[in-house]
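Sample 1 of the test manifest.
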Amino acid sequence: MAARKRGAPPARRTLAVPAAAAAAALLAAGCGGGGADGDVEIRFSWWGSDSRHEATQEVIDLFEERNPGITVTADYTDWDGYWDKLATSTAADDMPDVVTMEERYLREYSDRGALADLNGLEALDTSNVDELVASSGDVEGEKFGVATGVNVFSVMADPAQFEAAGVEVPDDETWTWEEYVETAAEITEASGGDIYGSQSMGYNENSFRIYARQHGESFYAEDGSLGFSKETLVEWFGLVAEMQEKEAQPTAAESVEIEAGGPDQSVLSTGSGAMAHFWSNQLAAISGAAKGDVELLRYPGESEFERTGMYFKPAMYYSVSAGTEHPEEAAKFVDFLLNDVDAGRIILADRGLPANTEVRSAIVEDLDEAGTRSADFVEELRPDIVDGPPPPPIGAGDVVEITKRVTDDVQFGEITPEEAADRFIEEVEAATQQ
Amino acid sequence: MTAVLNNRPAADADSGGTAGTGGPHRRRKPGRAAAARRRRETLAAYGFLAPWFLGLGLITIGPIIASLYFSFTDYSLIGGADWVGLENYRRMLDDPRLHQSLAVTFKYVFISVPLQLAMALALAMVLDRGVRGLPLYRSVYYLPSLLGGSVAVAILWRRIFGANGLINQLLESAGGLIGLSPTLPGWVSDPEYALGTLIILNVWTFGAPMVIFLAGLRQIPRMYYEAAQVDGAGPARRFWSVTVPLLTPIIFFNLVLQMINAFQTFTQAFIVSGGTGGPSDSTLFYTLYLYQQGFGSFEMGYASAMAWLLLMIIGGFTAVNFLASKYWVFYGD
């Protein structure tokens, strides 16, 4: 086996030669109309909606204006397409110089040597980053990503729907999981089934992550193995099943469709439910279509068990490609995105509440109502947040789909919470421990 | 390629032959000129063929060979590739989701293809009777074939067959008229019905085989029908004894083509399930799972091995089709 392994690289090289020749030919053809001498071109890639594209382009224009000689090319797409595109361009040695990363993919790229250590880049200053997310992009002492902003996974509630059902919005500092289930079931019942108490909480693994942390456990341990007990997970799927049985959430088939629709199709946006589970930076997108002014609530059970489970998550990361030809220019651009107040005023809370605390306090007044509410919420939570979870291991991107599948099966009543826990653990272990 | 290469020696032999028959000096000159011209023509031919060969090599054959190599490695798309031998193929044996994807795909192929062909033939026969405005109908029925695999239609399908979609609204109001209020499933979001809905979507795209059937029906000489009618054969008898046997080459052609297509179905399932193959893996087509492995889980080595398994499956079924065709396909004359 070992001998074969050693035999492999030459075979790759033989494939690589014609491929490289072709690539060189294409490059030569593409560069025909190149710019003036001394001009440096860097490419920046991100995912998102139209409003993000427009804002980011504005930031790029401002950067180019202040830094003559550096051109930034925009390379954007939607979330799903983003990772396919990034993976293929990385495989082709054509990774954008500056890329937007996400927690679950960071190690996928950094462990394979695709990202540069930001500590070594002089033009980038990370000293003002919020300490709760400052080291979230670090892997074994190297910094592969710097947080763009802070996000928190929370319950969003539409007070107008509560009122219509004649149910009071519970006190989120003390509510237990049982109260959450009861409240949701009550709303469905009071509305005669027209309004569901809550959108399913099962589809996003971050809900369970909080639940595990409340029990003094964690989703992933420091070494990337699973950090929770099976009992906790069985209890969790038990709650999901209970929500379904009590009709506190949409039918299983409706849930499948709601999930596929993203935030635009959430029960809050379509006015068909009173609560849903989302990241705080999605508040603006959701409250735009909701009936009332959507409120952010703490997770149920924060005072029920051993400790609080909510945490600050870096909304995204800015990372620099390990293969970039212009590391210092790339670092300069990241520094601008992260630390420049004018850039912050354009980006606002779109990439999470700015990670740079100075930029954050400078732009608070520019935020719209939803942005202000999520900023206040984050500040209110701060004292109660114990710590941040370590970066998920390689393969964590798969857990998104595994969570959806197992939750579907629980909600359709095809498997018991016990079976769901076994399957979930087996599949997540297979995906993350390679 | 070989045909072009073989031409050259033949051309040389030709000019040599003419040179031999007459005076060597005088005859040789035009012979040489002819050879030179031919060589120029051959070169020009290669020149014109080159873009195609380049494309074939770089875009088709190169990646195919590369994927065969990658199927024996743990290539992750981002990192390097280490040789793992047959590990990827062995892993297929105990991958429950792979088995699920095979089950889904086989079910889809073996139900939707016969239904689609039957539908196409039935419609072709109706149109063949000489309906007024035939070109219009032909286009109308052909339209779904052009649109069926598209993203827009798959999205539309998802809306129409959703739990609160058009179909259920119609059924509800129809049920209301006769005093019923049935509980209706989400046709694409309930694992029991999702695959069935996709099968219907495929059957709906019967236009392409229909147009081919229509052409085939036109080829059948009228006199066979007249003779059969004179002999007292009814419509059913004429269908089974005249139409079907004479149409078997066309049926065979459509069968092979549609089967290969159906095995490779991707877009519909990808859009309708949002790329997950859900609900509960009920629409996890083989190609969709392959895509998930390659681009979602960065298991490009495994995905390459899966691609080769699919190639073998499709090749196998096509071979069986051709072997079996000896027994049922009737080439007239």
